[in-house]
Write a sequence for this structure.
């Protein structure tokens, strides 16, 4: 759908001093980390950190608990493959009229897995916990 | 590139630009004649009113489809207002596909598919564009990757392009709205009120593409911004401005201040956010400004259209802010004449002084608890425009009643991801008005006083721009895809047609060879439905699409 043109000028420069640029710019894409285990994804500290990032970054589109957006509520999901959640955050998604941006290079991979942990914690098959 | 222009150099460039521009007659831009729709709102007054009346209240039910053109890409639907000039339709669709189409038959004359930079896969404001500008033999538009492009209007071939905003370095700030031609000056503003960046208005020589001037929407003044906050203060200019050749002023409203809900990091009045600007188009100099929401902490942009109405000797303008108030001003001086509430539920202030626009009794979000504010950050109305009929003296506008629950949470701005909205909240939810129900309507109202003539309830927020015509008709598209025609005086529904996908665009009317057409861009999209689907679950299933549908009587 998108005709992408690789221009001569570098688009993904290094992250320069924020005060000088006055804007968040794209950083070089760091190497992804290997997928964590399900028990790591259930770590309450991961879920808490993921929630903080999700609320600031994702909730305006998806709702604080993933109830909004253009996909069905995260609370109805069961058996959702964490790798798919991760890859959707990294690559973005275009589904008919619905467009989600790619977060590759703008959220570190380790933090993306924390987002996955929070998203999984919202699902119908998440273990009940005092944090929910 | 505009990014590296210093203030002194900008003045020099501006002077050179003025020297190069030959000066412009008032009618340089508009292809005249009742049959045309030559610019975004049809003319600079923002009326979205067609003087054609062959299609009228007595025969509108006989409308039938004449032709359909499809752009072939439905990402974020079809949000543009097409232009109709001398038998040719010009419009822009998903991912900056631009088309010229025969206005009688729908046959494609040419297309231009913009080759977009990879950064466009990462931007928040993705895929859509609200329109092109046409004049001086050219078609002008802004791109999702921060360029402005001019095409030859007959062949569609690119004549020039200019990188105006470095989207990759501005947290995804880009162009999603039609530029405005003021003689030979092309004026455009970027997205980014909600991004951690610093906005501008740009003046470009429309003939050559050379930059002429840059206007800083964030005033470098300690009373307005601390040094720590100004570079991430937002100040987008994300909708189309209007050039009045009589006052020789370009009017545009700016976005909210960033971070949207957290005023603690940006004490001051945060000029020129949430402000109406009157800019001299040849120089970029500010003639006057009126800040509707000083130190905005509710995401109440001033970006929407103005209506220009002359009352006797008074040259007035009316303007809706997202916070629900309509301000009436003298557009030569910026003096406030009246302020009236469009929204029925307003609680972020106790009121507004109708003589000055001063806010009375502010109620701000805070970090210690949740609070409910009405209207919500999605506005008393979304960006889709109203229409004004000089025959009825009424402004026809969609309106929405729902609220938001907000709790502020400051974050380190250095952790804000690229193109992440810079809101600073720990809780945000859209809710019905306290003790009431969420509701939506199409309202016919006196634009100067707010007196309502009629109002029609809609099940879901109306997200299309209204069209009024001399045939005593008002057309409004809904999110199910129905386009409705109403009697402009009474509001009685006279006709509707199911286009198959929701309307998020601008309806227009034009004529070719004396035959009048209604043109409906159908195809649902935009960010609003996703944001609001917690309150309106029907939005999750709303079908996308993209089709330009022309109707005639025979």
């Amino acid at each position: 759908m998108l005709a992408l043109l690789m221009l001569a000028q570098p688009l993904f420069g290094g992250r320069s001093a924020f005060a000088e640029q006055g804007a968040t710019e794209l950083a070089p894409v760091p190497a992804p980390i290997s997928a964590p285990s399900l028990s790591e994804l259930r770590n309450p500290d991961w879920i808490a950190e993921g929630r903080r990032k999700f609320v600031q970054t994702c909730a305006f589109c998806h709702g604080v608990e993933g109830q909004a957006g253009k996909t069905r509520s995260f609370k109805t999901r069961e058996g959702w493959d964490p790798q798919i959640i991760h890859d959707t955050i990294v690559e973005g998604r275009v589904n008919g009229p619905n467009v989600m941006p790619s977060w590759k290079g703008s959220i570190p991979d380790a933090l993306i897995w924390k987002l996955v942990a929070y998203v999984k914690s919202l699902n119908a098959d998440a273990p009940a916990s005092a944090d929910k | 590139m505009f990014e590296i222009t210093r203030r002194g150099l900008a003045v020099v460039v501006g002077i050179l630009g003025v020297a190069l521009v030959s000066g412009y007659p008032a009618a340089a831009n508009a292809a005249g004649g009742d049959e045309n729709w030559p610019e975004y709102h049809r003319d600079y007054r923002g009326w979205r009113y067609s003087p054609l009346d062959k299609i009228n209240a007595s025969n509108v039910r006989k409308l039938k489809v004449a032709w359909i053109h499809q752009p072939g890409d439905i990402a974020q639907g079809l949000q543009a207002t097409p232009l109709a000039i001398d038998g040719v339709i010009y419009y822009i669709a998903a991912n900056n596909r631009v088309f010229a189409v025969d206005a009688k038959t729908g046959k494609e004359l040419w297309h231009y598919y913009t080759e977009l930079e990879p950064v466009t896969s990462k931007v928040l404001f993705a895929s859509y564009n609200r329109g092109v500008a046409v004049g001086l033999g050219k078609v002008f538009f802004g791109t999702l990757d921060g360029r402005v492009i001019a095409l030859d209007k007959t062949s569609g071939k690119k004549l020039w392009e200019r990188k105006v905003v470095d989207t990759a370095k501005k947290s995804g700030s880009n162009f999603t709205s039609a530029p405005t031609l003021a003689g030979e000056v092309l004026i455009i503003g970027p997205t980014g009120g909600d991004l951690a960046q610093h906005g501008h208005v740009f003046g470009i020589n429309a003939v050559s593409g050379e930059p002429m001037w840059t206007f800083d929407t964030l005033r470098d003044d300690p009373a307005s911004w601390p040094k720590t906050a100004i570079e991430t203060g937002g100040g987008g200019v994300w909708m189309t401005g209007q050039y009045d050749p009589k006052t020789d002023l370009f009017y545009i409203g700016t976005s909210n201040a960033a971070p949207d809900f957290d005023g603690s990091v940006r004490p001051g009045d945060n000029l020129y956010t949430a402000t109406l600007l009157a800019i001299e188009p040849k120089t970029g100099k500010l003639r006057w400004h009126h800040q509707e929401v000083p130190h905005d902490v509710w995401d109440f942009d001033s970006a929407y259209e103005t209506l220009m109405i002359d009352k006797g000797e008074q040259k007035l303008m009316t303007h809706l802010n997202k916070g629900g108030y309509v301000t009436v001003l003298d557009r030569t001086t910026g003096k406030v004449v009246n302020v009236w509430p469009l929204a029925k539920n307003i609680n972020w202030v106790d009121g507004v002084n109708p003589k000055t626009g001063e806010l009375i009794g502010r109620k701000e979000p805070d970090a210690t608890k949740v609070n409910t504010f009405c209207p919500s950050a999605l506005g008393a109305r979304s960006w889709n425009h109203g229409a004004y009929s000089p025959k009825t003296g009424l402004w026809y506008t969609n309106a929405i009643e729902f609220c938001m629950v907000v709790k502020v949470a400051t974050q380190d701005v250095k952790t804000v991801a690229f193109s992440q909205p810079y809101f600073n909240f720990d809780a945000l939810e859209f809710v019905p008005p306290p003790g009431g129900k969420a509701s939506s309507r199409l309202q016919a109202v006196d634009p100067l006083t707010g007196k309502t003539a009629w109002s029609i309830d809609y099940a879901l927020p109306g997200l299309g721009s209204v069209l009024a015509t001399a045939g005593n008709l008002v057309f409004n598209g809904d999110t199910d895809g129905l386009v409705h025609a109403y009697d402009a005086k009474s509001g009685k529904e006279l006709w509707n047609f199911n286009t198959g996908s929701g309307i998020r665009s601008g309806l227009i009317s034009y004529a070719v060879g004396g035959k009048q057409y209604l043109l409906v861009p159908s195809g649902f999209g935009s960010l609003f439905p996703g944001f609001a689907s917690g309150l309106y679950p029907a939005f999750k299933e709303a079908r996308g699409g993209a089709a330009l549908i022309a109707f005639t009587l025979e």
